[in-house]
Design goal:
Shape: globular
Strand order of the largest sheet: 2-1-3-13-6-14
Number of helices: 18
Radius of gyration: 22 Å
Helix content: 40-55%
Strand content: 5-15%
Number of strands: 15
Largest sheet: 6 strands, mixed
Structural class: alpha+beta
Distance between the termini: 35 Å
Length: 424
C-alpha cells in the first residue's frame, strides 16, 4: 500500500525501533549526507534539518557534510562497507550504477502521492532505472549565457529572449561581432566537456546514445550531435571568437576575465549567478540570456540533484517521511534560493521569489519546461565512457588536435567497447 501522508508514515514507525540508527528509548536517528556547499545552501539545509528535529523528537536527523568532488567514490566505499548514510544527496547521472548494483532503495511504495504528482514525469525519468525509482529529483539548472550587458548593448546585436532565442548559427555570428582587440565574444569553460556538449546538443536533435529493442545502448553520432561541438570548434579555431585558453578551465576560472572585459559572454550553469552577484565589481552589469536553440528549440538535458535512501537503511519509512518534509513546496523554494537553482516541483516553480527579473530568475523559470533528462542518464558504464573515452576525445577535438572524423570514431568505436562490458 502506498503511504500517502506523513502522519501515516510516523504511525508505522513509533513501535520502539532499536536497531541500527535507533536508541534504547525508541528514538530513531537518520544520517543525512548533504552536498550543499555554498554558504546560503548549507544554511538553508541545516535550518530545515533543525526544524524537522524540533517537530519530530522521535526521529532525529543527523546532518553529515559531503563533497561533490569525491561523492561517487565515497559512497561506493560506504555502500560496500555497510556504512552508507540513510538519506543520500547526489546527482541523477551518478545513480545508475548504484541503482543497478542494489545499493539504493526503490522508492516506489515509500513516496507520498503529493510528491509524486508535484514533480513532472520528465524529471522522474532521470531517477528511474528498470522498473524502480531510486531517488527524488529536486533541484536542476539549465545552462544559460551570462553576458556583459554594456558590451552587448554597444554591439547592436539582437538581444535573445526565451520566446525568440538565437539559433546556433546566429550565436556564432554574434560572438564574431562581440570580438575585438583584446576581447573574445565568448569563453567556453570546458574542463569537463562531455555534459555540456551532450546536454546542449539536445537542442539540435542530438541523442548520441541509442537504446535498441534488446535494451542495450550503443553510441551513434548523428547530424544533430555535431551542431554544438562544431560551433564551439569553429568559434575557437576559425573565427577566433572564443578563447582557446579557457577550454581547460572550470566555470569559476573564467569570471576574472569576464569581469575584466576579456570575454563578452560565458555559457554557465544557472547557479553561477550567485558568484556573479557576489563577485562582480561595482557598476558591472551582467545579463542572463537563454542558450541558443536548434531544430528542437530550447530543449537541453539536465541531471537534477537527487535525494535517495540507502537500500541497507533500517528506517526507510522514516527517511521517506523526512524527504516529504524537506521537499514540501515552500521548503523546496528555500533550497532552490539557497543554491540559486530551479526546483523540480511545479508548485515551487510558481513562487514569485523565483520569477523576478532580478539576477535572471525569470529567464530560468521560463526555461524549466524545456529541460529533459540528460542523454546519459540511464546508461550503465557512462562514467567510464566519459572519463576514458569522451573527455579526452572532446578536449582534443576542441583544441584542434583531431578532426570530426576522429572524434566520431573514438566516441563510437572506443565508446561502444566500454559500454559493451556493462551490458553483457
Amino acid at each position: 500500500m502506498r503511504i500517502v501522508t506523513l502522519t501515516a508514515v510516523l504511525f508505522l514507525l513509533l513501535a520502539g525501533c532499536t536497531g541500527g540508527g535507533g536508541h534504547d528509548d525508541g528514538r530513531i536517528t537518520l544520517r543525512f549526507q548533504s552536498l550543499a556547499w555554498q554558504q546560503e545552501s548549507v544554511a538553508a539545509t541545516k535550518d530545515l534539518v533543525a526544524e524537522w528535529n524540533a517537530a519530530h523528537p522521535d526521529i532525529h536527523v543527523e546532518y553529515v557534510q559531503g563533497s561533490w568532488d569525491s561523492v561517487h567514490d565515497q559512497l561506493l566505499t560506504s555502500f560496500e562497507g555497510g556504512e552508507a548514510p540513510d538519506v543520500i544527496h547526489d546527482a541523477s547521472d551518478d545513480l545508475a550504477d548504484f541503482a543497478y548494483g542494489g545499493y539504493l532503495a526503490d522508492l516506489g511504495d515509500l513516496l507520498p502521492a503529493r510528491l509524486r504528482a508535484d514533480i513532472p514525469a520528465s524529471s522522474w525519468q532521470t531517477v528511474t532505472f528498470g522498473d524502480g525509482t531510486y531517488g527524488v529529483p529536486f533541484l536542476q539548472e539549465p545552462r544559460v549565457l551570462i553576458a556583459n550587458a554594456k558590451l552587448l548593448d554597444e554591439s547592436g546585436v539582437r538581444i535573445p529572449t526565451v520566446e525568440r532565442p538565437w539559433s546556433w548559427a546566429e550565436f556564432r555570428q554574434v560572438t564574431k561581432r562581440l570580438s575585438g582587440p583584446g576581447r573574445y565574444g565568448v569563453a567556453w569553460p570546458l574542463k569537463e566537456p562531455v555534459s555540456a556538449s551532450l546536454n546542449l546538443s539536445l537542442s539540435a536533435g542530438g541523442r548520441l546514445f541509442h537504446r535498441g529493442a534488446d535494451g542495450k545502448v550503443t553510441v551513434r553520432v548523428e547530424a544533430g550531435d555535431e551542431v554544438v561541438p562544431r560551433t564551439i570548434r569553429d568559434q575557437v579555431g576559425t573565427d577566433r571568437s572564443a578563447s582557446p585558453t579557457t577550454l581547460g578551465s572550470g566555470g569559476s576560472d573564467t569570471l576574472p576575465g569576464f569581469f575584466g572585459g576579456k570575454y563578452a559572454m560565458v555559457p554557465l550553469g544557472f547557479s553561477y549567478r550567485q558568484q556573479m552577484a557576489q563577485q562582480a565589481p561595482e557598476g558591472f552589469e551582467w545579463r542572463v540570456l537563454p542558450a541558443p536553440a536548434g531544430a528542437d528549440g530550447l530543449t537541453q538535458g539536465v541531471s537534477p540533484q537527487t535525494l535517495s535512501i540507502a537500500a541497507d537503511s533500517p528506517h526507510k519509512a522514516a527517511a521517506a517521511a523526512f524527504l516529504d518534509f524537506l521537499l514540501r513546496p515552500a521548503n523546496m523554494v528555500r533550497l532552490a534560493l539557497g543554491d540559486w537553482m530551479l526546483p523540480t516541483g511545479t508548485a515551487a516553480l510558481r513562487s514569485s521569489a523565483l520569477r523576478t527579473e532580478r539576477d535572471g530568475w525569470a529567464v530560468g523559470t521560463a526555461l524549466a519546461g524545456h529541460l529533459r533528462p540528460a542523454p546519459a542518464q540511464s546508461v550503465r558504464g557512462y562514467a567510464e565512457w566519459k572519463d576514458k573515452v569522451a573527455t579526452p576525445a572532446f578536449q582534443e577535438y576542441y583544441s584542434g588536435a583531431i578532426g570530426a572524423g576522429e572524434l566520431r570514431q573514438r566516441l563510437e568505436k572506443d565508446g561502444n567497447l566500454v559500454l559493451a562490458r556493462y551490458q553483457r
